[in-house]
């Protein structure tokens, strides 16, 4: 892996992880059209480190939200042990934790479709079709925006957003795009759908890395500078992507991302 590959891989991962354009789809297409070991997924250690770097970006931007959830976790556990299962008795932070639990639950099924996901990643035309589907999903999500705040979301609705996130394990379907669209269709405001999407990314990224931890390789001294460069690039581009998406969610809509995905998907279908 060269310095340029490490830098590009980090920048691409950080930006595409949070913008609703599918990071896995972009990396798979980059490898299919241009080659390069760094983009093939062969270096699993590097891939995991890049995902952790993007996770740091979420912690930085949503630090206050995440810190508030820590004491809420313990108070929620105490209420559950006392048999208090009615969400009407929970605080806003406790209800947010309930939403995160039910939103993450469907991801358990990802273990059973792993082979199908790996097969899809090998065919640029399939990725292209999924990118077009991603653009349609973003357009429908824009039309479904409501005014709900995250704590008011019902358990079933949070689980439905989780099903959108499950679909996004396929390259070409964006995790952030799917969860934002799902949240919007469930009645969340665009800003709250974005917040829910980023909070959902924490257990999703951690879970994905934990399942791959047994395949981690040793990090040689020679690779350390390249890994550090890639992580720094992913962190910076991830922060920029989160800030951009928050700004767009307040001022505009996601049609520009829908158009981009449709265009890239069409190109992939034609030349894949």
Question: Could you characterize the architecture of this molecule?
Answer:
By secondary structure, the chain is mainly alpha-helical. It has one domain. Helix content is 72%, strand content 0%. It has helices spanning 3-18, 23-34, 44-61, 63-81, 92-104, 114-120, 124-143, 155-167, 175-185, 190-211, 224-251, 255-271. Helix 3 (44-61) runs antiparallel to helix 10 (190-211) and helix 9 crosses helix 10 (190-211). It is globular. The protein starts with a helix and ends with a helix. Mean pLDDT is 86; it is low at 37-42.
Distance between the termini: 25 Å
Query: What composes the largest sheet?
Result: none
CA radius of gyration: 19 Å
The low-confidence runs, each spanning 5 or more residues with pLDDT under 50, are: 37-42
Overall geometry comes to: globular
Number of discrete domains: 1
Structure classification: mainly alpha
Number of strands: 0
Taken as a percent bin, the fraction of beta residues is: under 5%
Oligomer: single chain
Q: From N to C, what is the helix and strand string?
A: HHHHHHHHHHHH
Kindly state the percentage of residues in helix. Answer: over 70%
Provide the residue-averaged pLDDT.
86
> Please, how many helices?
12
């Amino acid at each position: 892996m060269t310095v340029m590959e490490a830098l590009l891989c980090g920048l691409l991962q950080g930006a595409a992880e949070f913008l609703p354009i599918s990071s896995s789809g972009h990396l798979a297409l980059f490898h299919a059209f241009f080659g390069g070991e760094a983009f093939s997924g062969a270096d699993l250690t590097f891939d995991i480190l890049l995902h952790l770097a993007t996770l740091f970006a979420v912690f930085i931007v949503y630090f206050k939200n995440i810190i508030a959830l820590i004491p809420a976790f313990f108070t929620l556990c105490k209420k559950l042990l006392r048999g208090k299962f009615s969400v009407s008795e929970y605080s806003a932070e406790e209800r947010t934790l309930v939403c995160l639990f039910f939103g993450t639950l469907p991801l358990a099924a990802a273990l059973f479709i792993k082979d199908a996901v790996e097969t899809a990643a090998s065919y640029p035309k399939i990725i292209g079709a999924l990118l077009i589907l991603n653009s349609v999903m973003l357009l429908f999500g824009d039309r479904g925006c409501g005014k709900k705040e995250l704590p008011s979301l019902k358990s079933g609705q949070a689980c439905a957003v989780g099903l959108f996130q499950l679909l996004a394990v396929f390259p070409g379907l964006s995790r952030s795009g799917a969860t934002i669209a799902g949240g919007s269709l469930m009645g969340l405001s665009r800003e709250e759908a974005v917040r829910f999407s980023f909070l959902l990314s924490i257990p999703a990224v951690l879970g994905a890395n934990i399942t791959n931890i047994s395949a981690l390789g040793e990090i040689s001294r020679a690779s350390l500078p390249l890994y550090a460069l890639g992580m720094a690039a992913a962190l910076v581009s991830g922060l920029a992507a989160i800030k951009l998406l928050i700004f767009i969610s307040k001022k505009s809509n996601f049609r520009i991302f829908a158009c981009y995905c449709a265009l890239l998907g069409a190109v992939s279908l034609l030349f894949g």
